[in-house]
Amino acid sequence: MSDDIRGVVDAMQLKNITLGGHSTGGGIAVRYMARHKEHGVSRLALFAAAAPSLIQRPYFPYGLSKQAVLDIIRGTYEDRPLMLQNFGNMIFHNYVTPGISDWIFTLGLEASSWATAAVANTWLDEEALFGDLETIQVPTLILHGLDDRVCLYPLALAQKKGIKNARLVPFESCGHFLFYDQSERFNKELMQFIEE
C-alpha cells in the first residue's frame, strides 16, 4: 500500500508534504517513509499508528494478542456486523451519540470484507516496521490516546524511541479515534506542527 502513496505523490507532483496516517494508515506511512526514502515528504504525522507492531511478539510484549487479530479476521467472514460492533466498542473512550456510532458502523459495512480481512492479515506478519522507524529523518509528530484499546499506548512510546526527530503528544482520556474524542486539541496540535 505504500507504493500506492508513491503513485499519488508522483502523479500529483507533490513536494514538501506532511504525510499523515491513522491506525493501519500510520503503519503504511512508516513503510512509505522507509521504502521510498521519504520521497516528497517533509513532515510525518502519526495518529494512533499501528507501528511498529499491532500485535504482541516474543520481543515486543505490547499490542493485541495474535488471537484477538485472528478473531477479527474470522469475524469478518463469519459475522461481520458483530465483529464491527465489537470493534466499534473499542475505538471510542468517551461517550458518542448513537448517530456517530451508527455512522462508524455503516462505514465499516461499506468497506470490502475481503479488503478488511486482507489488511488484518498484514498485522500478523508485519515485522519490518521495527527497522523502518529508524530510517525516518523528517520531523515527526506522534499523537496517541492514553486509553487507546486498539493501538495501545506503548506503541507510541516505541515510535518515539525509534524515530530520531519525533515529538510525542499523549492525549489523556482519549481512545483510538482521538481526532473525534478530542477534535479541537487534535486539530490544534496538527496545525501547529504543519505550520512550524
UniProtKB/TrEMBL annotation:
Entry annotated with the keyword Isomerase: no
Gene3D superfamilies for the chain: alpha/beta hydrolase
Domain AB hydrolase-1 intervals: 4-188
Statement: the UniProt record of this protein carries the keyword Nucleus: no
GO cellular component: membrane
E.C. number: 3.1.1.2
Any Pfam family matching the protein: Abhydrolase_6
Alphabetized PANTHER family for the sequence: AB HYDROLASE SUPERFAMILY PROTEIN YCLE (PTHR43798:SF31), MONOACYLGLYCEROL LIPASE (PTHR43798)
Protein name: Arylesterase
